[in-house]
Amino acid sequence: MGGLGILPGVILLAGVAPLAGQTRAPIETDRPDFTESSATVPKGRWQLEAGYTAQRARGTSHSLPESLLRAGLTSRVELRLSQNLTVTDGALSAEDLSVGAKLGLGAQHGARPELALIVQSTLPTGGSRVTASTWLPSAALLAGWELGGSWSLGGSAIAGRAKDDLLELAGSAVVGYTLSERWRSYAEVFTIQPVSGNGGERGESYLNGGFAHLLTPMVQLDARLGVGIGGGAARYFGGVGLSLGW
Fold it and tell me: Which helix or strand (DSSP H or E) is residue 171 part of?
C-alpha cells in the first residue's frame, strides 16, 4: 500500500452491458484509477491487468509492468497476484510480490452500494533497495453505485501495515461517466496517510482522471493523469495500461 504503481483500480466499468452483438459482458478492471472495483472476476475467468506510470517528485521515477493477475474462483471470490518493478535514479528494482483475495459482500440494492473486501499482503521478495523485508498485510473495503444513465460512484477505505511498522490509512472517491459503448471516463480524489509510529513520513493526496477504451469485450486500453495536492505528494504522475480477459 502507498505506491501509485501497485494500487491502480477502476470502478467505471461496473455494470456495463455486453457490447452490441456480444454475449459475454466486458471485463471490469481494477485500473486505471486508485479505487479498486467493487466487482469480482466471474467464476472461471482470468484477467491480466498491466501498465506503466511515470511520476515526478524530487526526481522522475518509473513503474512497470504494474501486473495484476485475477482469477475468479466462485461468483463472489477471486484470487489476486501482483508484481511490479520501479526505476528510480537509474536503478531497476523488483518490488515485493503481493498476494490476496477479493470477496464480494453483496450487490447494490437501492441506496445500499455493491460492496467488496480485499485482503492481501506483500511478501518480502523484492530487491534490497525497495523491499520491506517483512510481510505487509492490508484490507480494503470497496463500495460502488450505479446511478442509472451514464453515471457511477465508487469509494474505498484501506488500512494496512507499511514500512517501519507504520499504520497507514488510505481513502478515495471516484465518479465514473460512460461516454459511449466503448469509452469510459473518471475523475477521482485519493489520500494516503501514515497515522502511527510516524518516523517523519508525510501523507500524500492526489487528484486524477482518465479514460478506458474497450477494443473488444476482453481487451481494454486506459490512460490516466494526476497531480499532487499537498503533503508529501509527488508533483504529478501519468500512465497507460492494457487489460486482457479470457
Answer: strand 167-178
Query: Which tens digit of pLDDT belongs to each residue from 36-56?
Result: 999 999 999 999 999 999 999
Question: 79 in helix, strand or coil?
Answer: strand
Q: Beta 77-88 vs 91-94: how paired, if at all?
A: antiparallel
Helix, strand, coil % (nearest 5) of the chain? 0, 60, 40
130/93 Cα distance (integer angstroms)? 7
Kindly state the cell numbers that stand for 117: 473486501
Q: Is the dihedral of CA 218, 109, 32, 50 positive or negative?
A: negative
And the C-alpha cell for 60?
A: 522522475
For residue 167, give the nearest of 192, 131, 190 by alpha carbon: 192
Segment 106-134, tens digit of pLDDT:
999 999 999 999 999 999 999 998 999 99
Query: For 167-214, how does the pLDDT look when each residue is reduced to its tens digit (9 = 90+)?
Result: 999 999 999 999 999 999 999 999 999 886 555 677 899 999 999 999
SS3 165: helix
DSSP labels, 25-77: PPP--S-SBSSPPSPPPPTT-EEEEEEEEEEESSSEEEEEEEEEEEEE-SSSE
